[in-house]
Specification:
Shape: globular
Number of strands: 9
Order of helices and strands: EEEEHHHHHHHEEEHEEHHHHHHH
Radius of gyration: 25 Å
Helix content: 40-55%
Distance between the termini: 81 Å
Largest sheet: 3 strands, antiparallel
Strand content: 5-15%
Length: 355
């Protein structure tokens, strides 16, 4: 960091306060997109988190360029604007950005908006430390209050309906494995065939923080896995339907079929589209495209909620969820809709009289 020399102002002898001039620590990236990639690698963002960070920062790229970020179907295939990262220091940007962020917050859920804001501020702070930008145009944008959603745990009949859907073997196995193991979707998608121990109904995953841990499954997954694996002995467990495009990392290509590893984004889209009628049982099939289905995370949430309802001990819940603190389990400790319904029914005086 260089300091400009102190100069005298006026006849009164008042001195101008020295102003720090930040010297960039490395070459300025060619664009905002390049700055995002430099941040993801330079800040040592875990591979399991990089996908979410990249999506969030791409969304902010539109707003930092003074444009509204596309949402819904309009976002698919939309090319983000190209601009220099130094444009973030435009003095007119904070006011424009505040309006764009407020408009987006009105369309999105509070959890998503708050997560994206937090990621943007982390990246901006890192770029400031590199000397690429000086200011933070997100100052003044407040986090949105996020009321808790008590309906994330799916009911027993909803889970049963999910298993009855007419979907491919890949989806059946993936969803069943997520539910039975209570694992995170991105962890399961990173599984390779050689990470599986079918005889023990367990697999070795790379979890948050790049830690290597075990997940365990039950008979439903055990019956489906052999059919999914067929005769493969190595490579990604869950594959796309087509050959991997040129440039796909070797670790994400099956050496026996040439197909690529299934991405989280594609897996999420498939699950959401297939569960729209289950999530909106009274909706007309003609209007289903305008409605939202379930997220993959709800399978993990539902499994851990069932465990808590069945009296699973805190140490076992910690081990199964692989959370670091007991406080993180609070979201699952609340009884789900079926447990509450049974509690109310068992205490219904009219029902007892009929019995």
């Amino acid at each position: 960091m260089a300091i400009e020399p102190v100069t005298e102002l006026g006849s009164g002898g008042a001195l101008r306060v020295p102003r720090a001039r930040v010297v960039p620590l490395s070459a300025l990236p060619s664009s905002y997109t390049a700055a995002v990639e430099r941040y993801l690698t330079g800040a040592s963002i875990a591979k399991s988190s990089a996908r979410i960070y990249r999506i969030s920062l791409t969304t902010w790229g539109w707003m930092l360029a003074g444009e509204p970020a596309p949402t819904g179907p309009a976002r698919r295939g939309a090319e983000p604007p190209v601009f220099p990262v130094t444009a973030i220091d435009d003095p007119a940007l904070p006011e424009v950005l505040a309006e764009l962020a407020a408009a987006r917050a009105d369309e999105m859920d509070a959890d998503t908006v708050n997560r994206e804001l937090s990621i943007a501020r982390k990246a901006i702070g890192w770029w400031q430390r590199q000397g690429w930008i000086d200011g933070d145009p997100t100052i003044g944008i407040e986090r949105r209050p996020a009321p808790p959603d008590r309906t994330k745990a799916l009911a027993e009949n909803q889970i049963a309906a999910l298993w009855r859907l007419d979907v491919s073997l890949r989806e059946k196995t993936f969803w069943k494995l997520l539910y039975e193991s209570a694992a995170r979707a991105d962890e399961v998608l990173r599984l390779n065939v050689e990470d599986l121990y079918p005889q023990d109904k367990r697999g070795r995953i790379t979890a948050k923080g790049e830690a290597t841990e075990w997940i365990h499954w039950q008979s439903g997954t055990a019956q489906l896995l052999p059919r999914l694996i067929a005769r493969r002995t190595r490579g990604p467990l869950f594959l796309t339907d087509r050959k991997a495009p040129a440039g796909t990392p070797t670790l994400d290509v099956c050496p026996e079929t040439g197909r690529a590893r299934l991405s989280y984004r594609r897996a999420e889209v498939i699950f959401e589209e297939n569960t729209r009628l289950l999530a909106n049982p009274l909706a007309s099939p003609d209007h289903i495209k305008d409605l939202d289905g379930w997220t993959l995370h709800r399978l993990r949430h539902s499994a851990l909620t069932r465990d808590a309802e069945d009296g699973t001990s805190t140490p076992m819940l910690l081990a199964r969820s692989r959370h670091a603190s007991v406080r993180s389990l609070e979201r699952y400790a609340r009884p789900g809709v079926d447990a509450v319904a049974r509690h109310v029914a068992e205490r219904d005086p009219a029902a007892r009289r009929r019995t």
